[in-house]
Amino acid sequence: MTRAEALKYRAAIETAVQSLDDETAAEVPTLFPAWSAETAYEAGAKVQYGGTVYTVLQAHTSQTDWTPDAAASLFAEVLPGQGGSQVGEWVQPDSTNPYMTGDRVLYNGVLYESLIDNNVWSPEAYPAGWKEVEA
Predict the structure, then answer these.
(1) DSSP secondary structure letter of residue 125
(2) The whole model's pTM is what?
C-alpha cells in the first residue's frame, strides 16, 4: 500500500467513526482524528486527545490553548457507562457530560444505575440518584 492510499483509508476511517455510539467510541479512541489546533470542528464531532474520546459541544475553530481537557465549554469527555456504553468505573462528570437515567457504572466494585438525568454525583454522595443492580 502506498502512503497516499494509507492516508485515503485513514481519512475514510475518521469520517466513518463519527457515527459510532459512545459505547463503541470509548473502546476505540485511536480510530478518531487526533485533536489539533487551528482546525474547524462541528458540534457533535468526536476527537481523540491523550487517548480519550471527546465530543465537540459547539462549533468552533480550535486554538492552541483550547485543548479538549482544558476547554470544558467546547468539549465533553465520553465516559464509561454513558448512553448504553460498556460499563466501566464511575468517573466524576461535569455539567457537560453528566450521567443520564439508565447509565450504568461500577462504583467501589458495585454495579449502579442512574435513576435521574444530569447526574453528576457519585452513588455515595447522592444515593437517591442511583440504584444498585445485579450484574
Answers:
(1) T
(2) 0.73
